[in-house]
Amino acid sequence: MRKLLLAIMIAAPLMASACNTIAGVGRDVGAVGDAVSKTAEEAK
Fold first, then answer.
1. CA 35, 40, 43, 44 torsion: positive or negative?
2. What is the dihedral of CA 12, 13, 15, 19, to 10 degrees?
3. Sign of the CA dihedral with 20 first, then 23, 27, and 32 last
4. What's the CA gap between 21 and 11, in Å, rounded?
5. pLDDT tens per residue across span 4-26
């Protein structure tokens, strides 16, 4: 039981930081997509 509690205490912050990282990557990819769309519109 003690090992399980320790594992949860270690894993929880790692999982939370992974979610933040994935959200950040999603925003970055969206920003790149917006920039590409804007450049394509300007090139018409």
1. negative
2. 140
3. positive
4. 15
5. 888 888 888 877 777 677 777 78
